[in-house]
Inverse folding.
């Protein structure tokens, strides 16, 4: 019989495996099926990306445009709501969550975002889920398995939704406070923007010791959208300097850069040497949680790819890649296949 998990029980001190959108290499992302697979395969945390509905509910989708990850195009009753919008400065055409009530979104079913690589076996089987439903599900899984399972929600398009009068930060905190599980279980809130994390740091104070903040970082010359929207000059490249990292440490506990910001590819497409970013972050007290490890040849460095097409998986190549980053000193990592992440961490420790 599995031991009983008591909320507040810490996750073991080790490099943490984060199920990126669940186990998105194996199930349609941001579905309970994807989160369930991630948990069954040993993920320490599962990641729901959060966007808002028209009536203010938080639902799990990687983007607020859902034409590619749901069957909405098959719903004739919603055809007239297809539109073009500018989100974070980028135009896009499709269907957007903020134009639908939760009840309407619940009539949809999820589809695979990368069908050319991962197939369509599970298309149409799973509904869209809210943040509250995810928390309840994770709490039940933790109780059944007798181990803590962390939740690492990402607040998507914070400035955009605030401009629509659908701000999400206080709703995320309210959901955390409304559930006994998330009042004590490991939670880490993440964003590519800055001011919302600063706001959350002020709101959290010392009252939520289980909740940490993660500053996500994009390509070097890009700016956080809240910075760009107000005409500021701060770039992610500046944030990755020693001085920039010291500033990030004022409000965040960890950074989430892309894996290529830590170990870039050389001219041949193979892994090069680590940059100084991990050591610089650790020096100011920030953990490093990079994204995203994926098992298909399409995403692997050339020297770690296996036989077959871009869609072919090469599990050993993915594990080898993760271990290169573990050796470089990362503290946690996002992976589309947590079972491989678990092998990379546990197998390395065993050796």
């Amino acid at each position: 019989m599995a031991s009983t998990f008591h909320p507040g029980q810490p996750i073991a001190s080790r490099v943490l495996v984060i199920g990126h959108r669940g186990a998105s290499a194996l199930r349609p992302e941001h579905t309970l099926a994807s989160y369930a697979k991630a948990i069954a395969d040993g993920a320490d945390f599962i990641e729901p990306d959060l966007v808002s509905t028209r009536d203010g509910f938080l639902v799990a989708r990687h983007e607020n445009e859902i034409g590619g990850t749901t069957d909405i195009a098959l719903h004739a009753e919603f055809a007239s709501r297809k539109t073009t919008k500018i989100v974070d400065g980028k135009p896009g055409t499709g269907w957007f969550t903020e134009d639908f009530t939760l009840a309407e979104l619940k009539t949809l079913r999820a589809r695979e975002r990368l069908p050319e690589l991962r197939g369509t076996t599970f298309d149409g089987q799973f509904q869209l889920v809210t943040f509250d439903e995810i928390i309840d599900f994770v709490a039940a899984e933790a109780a059944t398995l007798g181990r803590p399972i962390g939740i690492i929600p990402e607040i998507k398009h914070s400035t955009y939704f605030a401009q629509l009068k659908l701000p999400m930060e206080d709703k995320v905190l309210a959901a955390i406070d409304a559930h006994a599980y998330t009042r004590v279980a490991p939670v880490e809130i993440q964003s590519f923007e800055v001011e919302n994390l600063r706001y959350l740091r002020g709101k959290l104070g010392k009252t939520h010791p289980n909740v940490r903040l993660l500053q996500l970082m994009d390509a070097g010359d890009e700016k956080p959208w809240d910075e760009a929207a107000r005409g500021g000059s701060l770039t992610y490249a500046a944030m990755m300097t020693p001085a920039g990292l010291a500033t990030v440490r004022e409000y965040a506990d960890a950074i989430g850069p892309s894996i290529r910001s830590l170990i870039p590819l050389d001219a041949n497409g193979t892994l090069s040497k680590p940059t100084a970013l991990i050591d610089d972050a650790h020096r100011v007290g920030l953990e490093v949680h990079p994204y995203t490890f994926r098992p298909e040849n399409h995403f692997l460095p050339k020297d770690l790819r296996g036989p077959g097409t871009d869609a072919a998986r090469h599990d050993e190549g993915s594990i080898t890649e993760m271990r290169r980053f573990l050796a470089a000193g990362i503290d946690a990592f996002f992976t589309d296949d947590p079972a491989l992440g678990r092998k990379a961490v546990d197998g390395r420790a065993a050796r």
In short: The first helix runs from residue 32 to 40.
